[in-house]
């Protein structure tokens, strides 16, 4: 049992270090300037078509970030896949396979595969090659995960997700500002002005910040990307899942003292969601995003009969170590701007595979 093991100290999360001001961390502005210059040069080469993007015979819908770190893309990927399925289309998921073990698959792929059992999923660092593989297998639309900066694969739609609780990678500071620093001083992959090339911006976790901050964020996004539609979304908790697949009512958390464990991009948002359900968090053991769990990582958690709750992404890794936890299941919900998102999706041209199927159907019934 995990509680019988000696607890390993949780690694220090990089975002916690970068959120500090002053001291040695400010020296990171020097490599950050170099990184930003390289990013800007690459953007200009693509814009000038010196570097070219490759196309595939199916529409490509990209779910991207400005930042390194979680913005809630996986729940949005689930929402999009189900949206296409509800209209009789075959979506395929394409991801890089970040930190996948040799010969294995990444944690997000395993999580998505568990929730979308009938959707093809390809992992390939070469996203153009991966997209071609999906098209060859007959998908109608390619959902490109975390590809906003991966411009080698041409896309038909770019959705960029902005986490309202940490819009540009780091949490809001005490003065009510959203720090915007490039890697490695912060978590930005490119300037916020890059939002102007998006087809739509989706502000996630919009319910986890006060209205004044949300309003200030929306105003800044409008300045950075004038004319680009902005949608507001929430991650709505729907159930607790046991290891055997049983679903428990969220009311079970009300008034309970529980433990949390996570290795995700935004652990604060996870904890805030649990607290809004009426639970008292006794301990939240936070590991860096994509953490590879070891045998002692959960030691002491769940002591005294406390429930131990984690995320879908963490659960697939913990299960490999025989650690069974309760999983907080969340659904993605667009609370503003849904009509604009759906209008963009409905305007997509059909894939070659879909056209060929329609021709065959017409021939059979002609």
What are the key terms here?
366 residues, alpha/beta, Rossmann fold, 2 domains, 12-stranded mixed sheet, 10 helices, 12 strands, 20% strand, globular, disordered N terminus
Structure description:
With about 375 residues, the chain is α/β, with parallel strands linked by helices. It has 2 domains: about 15-230 and about 335-360, Rossmann fold; about 235-330. About 30% of the residues lie in helices and about 20% in strands. The chain has 10 helices and 12 strands. Strands 1, 2, 3, 4, 5, 6, 7, 8, 9, 10, 11 and 12 form a 12-stranded mixed beta sheet that branches. Strand 11 (about 305-310), helix 8 and strand 12 form a beta-alpha-beta unit. Helix 4 packs across helix 8 (about 310-320). The longest helix has 19 residues, at about 30-45. It is globular. The relative contact order is 0.16.
Q: How is the secondary structure organized here?
A:
Layout: H1 14-18, H2 29-47, E1 60-65, H3 73-86, E2 91-95, H4 107-115, E3 120-123, H5 127-136, E4 141-145, E5 157-163, E6 200-204, H6 211-224, E7 230-241, E8 247-248, E9 257-262, H7 267-276, E10 280-286, E11 307-310, H8 312-318, E12 326-336, H9 338-346, H10 352-365
Parallel strand pairs: 1-4, 1-5, 2-3, 2-4, 5-6, 6-7, 9-10, 9-11, 11-12
Antiparallel strand pairs: 7-8, 7-12
């Amino acid at each position: 049992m995990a509680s019988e093991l000696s607890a390993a100290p949780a690694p220090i999360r990089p975002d916690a270090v970068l959120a500090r001001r002053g001291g040695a961390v400010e020296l990171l502005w020097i490599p950050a300037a170099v990184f930003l210059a390289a990013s800007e040069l690459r953007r200009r080469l693509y814009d000038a078509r010196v570097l070219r993007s490759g196309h595939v015979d199916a529409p490509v819908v990209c779910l991207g970030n400005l930042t390194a770190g979680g913005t809630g893309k996986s729940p949005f990927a689930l929402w999009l896949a189900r949206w296409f399925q509800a209209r009789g289309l075959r979506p395929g998921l394409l991801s890089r396979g970040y930190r996948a073990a040799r010969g294995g698959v990444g944690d997000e792929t395993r999580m998505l595969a568990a929730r979308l059992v009938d959707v093809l999923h390809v992992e390939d660092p070469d996203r153009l090659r991966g997209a071609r593989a999906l098209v060859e297998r007959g998908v109608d639309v390619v959902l490109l995960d975390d590809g906003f900066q991966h411009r080698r694969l041409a896309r038909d739609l770019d959705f960029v997700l902005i986490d309202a609780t940490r819009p540009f990678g780091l949490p809001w500071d005490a003065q009510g500002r959203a720090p915007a620093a490039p890697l490695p001083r912060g978590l930005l992959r490119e300037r916020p002005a890059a939002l102007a090339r998006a087809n739509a911006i989706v502000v996630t976790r919009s319910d986890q910040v006060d209205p004044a901050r949300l309003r200030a964020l929306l105003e800044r996004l409008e300045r950075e990307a004038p004319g680009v539609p902005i949608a507001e979304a929430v991650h709505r908790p729907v159930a607790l899942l046991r290891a055997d697949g049983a679903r428990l009512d969220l009311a079970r958390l009300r008034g309970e003292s529980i433990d949390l464990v996570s290795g995700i991009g935004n652990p604060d948002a996870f904890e805030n969601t649990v607290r809004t359900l009426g639970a008292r968090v006794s301990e939240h053991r936070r590991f860096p995003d994509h953490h590879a769990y070891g045998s002692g990582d959960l030691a002491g958690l769940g002591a005294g009969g406390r429930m131990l709750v984690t995320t879908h992404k963490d659960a697939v890794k913990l299960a490999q170590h025989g650690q069974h936890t309760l999983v907080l299941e969340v659904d993605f919900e667009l609370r503003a701007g849904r009509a604009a998102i759906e209008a963009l999706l409905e305007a997509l041209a059909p894939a070659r595979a879909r056209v060929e199927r329609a021709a065959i159907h017409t021939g059979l019934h002609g």
